[in-house]
Amino acid sequence: MQYTLIEQSVQIPPLGLSGDLAVPANASGIIVFAHGSGSSRHSPRNRHTAGELQDGGFGTLLLDLLTPAEEQVDLATRQLRFDIGLLAGRLIEVTDWLQREPTTRGLPTGYFGASTGGGAALVAAAARPLTIRAVVSRGGRPDLAGEALSRVKAPTLLIVGGDDSHVLRLNREAFDKMRCEKHLSIVPKATHLFEEPGAMEQVSDLALNWFKQHVKPGNEAETGSRVG
Questions:
Q1: Which of 1, 14, 70, 90 has the highest Cβ tally under 10 A?
Q2: More confident of the two residues 99 and 1
Q3: Residue 203 confidence (pLDDT) above 80
Q4: In the predicted model, what is the mean pLDDT of residues 24-32?
Q5: How far apart are CA 226 and CA 136, in angstroms?
Q6: Residue 223 above 60 pLDDT?
Q7: Could you tell me the CATH number of the domain that includes residue 207?
Q8: What is the distance in angstroms between the CA of the first residue and the CA of the last residue of the chain?
């Protein structure tokens, strides 16, 4: 199905964070992307998934959680990408901004986090339990969410590559600490960046189905868990 998209570059207050906002007509919801270590809103993997979500009727916001000056510091030190409190705080500011924006106000909201962005998305979701309807983490670091894991109410899908053994172990440990509806989906033979043929297509399909199930008007979070 083809959707008419409203696409625009945005600067999000108070810091003027850069973002690319795309909202189909009659959008089902808006999905905010939190990228991971050393990446940006131009990540081809996130843009692939964003395109699939747009085709599925969702608006998307791809953004940089660091300012250009902070990006330069992070390139040298690699520290800010692991500052989960900072990144989650930025996500919360963005979420509140979306609720004020005419094109997105009132739309059900979800998070798609990758790498360290997965941990930041879970912390922000715990802080906005009435606003965030669902979270998807791709190759994420939910363990970095710490004690916030048990406070997440949004149904959460953790997607991990089957050959990404270290991150898979961390996801299993975080999964056990979560008390929301949750599912751990393992993409066979995929590594951390899901560069194998067909791997990103599987990620996008899983994310779209999860958001279709949970990011819609009037839905309520359920409890339960699955691994597969």
A1: 90
A2: 99
A3: yes
A4: 95
A5: 14
A6: no
A7: 3.40.50.1820
A8: 29
The conformational region for residue 23 under phi > 0 = left, psi -120 to 50 = alpha, else beta, is beta
What token pair was written down for 106? 């009132």
Render the burial of 125-156: b for 16+ CB within 10 Å, e for the rest: bbbbeebbbbbbbbbbbbbbbeebbebbbbbb
Q: Which residues have a Cβ under 8 Å from the Cβ of 68 and sit 6 or more positions away?
A: none
| One-letter amino acid for residue 102 of the chain | P
158 with 142: CB under 8 angstroms?
yes
pTM for the model: 0.91
Position 40 scores a pLDDT of 65
Which burial class, exposed, middle or buried, applies to 95 when counting CB atoms under 10 A from its CB (0-12, 13-18, 19+)? buried
d(CA 208, CA 145): 23
Q: Does the pLDDT of residue 38 top 70, yes or no? A: no
Q: How confident is the model at residue 221 (pLDDT cuts 50, 70, 90)?
A: very low
Count the domains in the chain. 1
**Model confidence at 147, in pLDDT bands (50, 70, 90)?**
very high
Full residue range of the structural domain in which residue 22 is found: 5-227
Written as six digits, the tokens of 128 are: 């906005």
3-state secondary structure of 30: strand
